[in-house]
Write a structure and sequence with these properties.
Pfam families: Virulence_RhuM. This protein has helices spanning 2-16, 20-27, 59-81. It is mostly helical. The chain has one domain (2-81).
Length: 87
């Protein structure tokens, strides 16, 4: 789980210039509808939804993040196919 958190933070930083925690801290706003969350499951956000930085991203930022994630997995697949152990 720690590896996932580290990679996720690096991808958030590459896409938005901020870590996941910084994105949540900077964008959470009790004055806005749904505390400023852009996406969440159901009709209302849950406490868990407020701890996911991806839920604070607009559609353009989310597309950038998704493209970086795809590129990362493509690179990992290429490395695995060539038996390299490090990215």
């Amino acid at each position: 789980m720690q590896f996932f958190k580290v990679v996720q933070n690096k991808l958030h930083f590459a896409a938005q210039g901020h870590t996941a925690a910084e994105i949540i801290y900077d964008r959470a706003d009790s004055e806005k509808d749904f505390m400023g969350l852009q996406t969440f499951k159901g009709d209302f956000p849950t406490l868990t939804d407020t701890t996911i930085a991806k839920n604070c991203l607009d559609s353009k930022e989310l597309k950038t993040l998704n493209n970086l994630v795809s590129a990362y997995f493509d690179l990992a697949e290429l490395k695995a196919e060539s038996n390299e152990k490090r990215l």
